[in-house]
């Protein structure tokens, strides 16, 4: 279990009490308020209290998926908070199994606190519960999640159609490594340190030419520690002629665990349920592997380091599919579905500019003309 501390905000409702019911829950990182996971669902005909307990259970399960150690539960249900805190008896026999299920989940964390909050501070979970009830009733709902529309998700960068000045921008030239034997076979290639193939070396040389075409005034070339990236980076540094390669461990590929070296079809055959959960949530890791949320966190840290070190320079970043996809997802303010819709070719090149005030401009994605 990690030391992650999260806040679970949960709610439930019933239109009729009892009546058509639904629940909602969000898990937020305690330090930043970033929404890490959302859960919502309809419950058929139930009471408000049953729906509120189901929201709590869904939120605790989501926190467990993230590997959280400490959980601060916040709900506007005085009954659920007081009962789970042990201050009120559970007189309704229908609620006792739900409270027991929640208590069992609580035992899986290092520490859990319960806090009552007014309804106006529980808007995200309330909106998700109402969304669940609307969906069950066949009413139109927004495709956007309530959390994505919250102030915590508002763009921090100023909105402006005018071409921004590059004087204070850090330009990232993102390069995926050249082809390996596993790349050509469509196999998961994570922490295995496979070399470039002959074709991959040719691709890396071509990518070096494209990088030089974008800019020869490069402040740094940084690379994942795996040799398929280091070798690609060496070709780029040699083409530029005035930089050396620096290894950043945070740029390493996702750890695919037990799926390493397998094709998607082979993983699907052996781990169908686990693969479905992995595809559904960036918080879920492959068996004995690493989640995309964990990858995103370390890659964001690497980018902040680069922005600080090169506040008005160009940096070539040589990495892998997962880190580069996650960088582009964040840069484009896209959802997680983006990760499964974007294809990145071996030795493909993308360019992103970043400003100190949080501004981002994506100049290109997966350029491949140099490979033809």
Automatic annotation (TrEMBL):
One cellular-component annotation, GO: cytoplasm
Instruction: Name the active site residues.
Output: 177 (tele-phosphohistidine intermediate), 253 (proton donor/acceptor), 253 (proton donor/acceptor)
At which positions is substrate bound? 228
Could you say which EC number(s) this protein's record lists? 5.4.2.12
Which CDD domains does the annotation name? HP_PGM_like, RNase_HI_like
Keyword tags: Isomerase
Q: From the Swiss-Prot or TrEMBL record, give the protein name.
A: Putative phosphoglycerate mutase
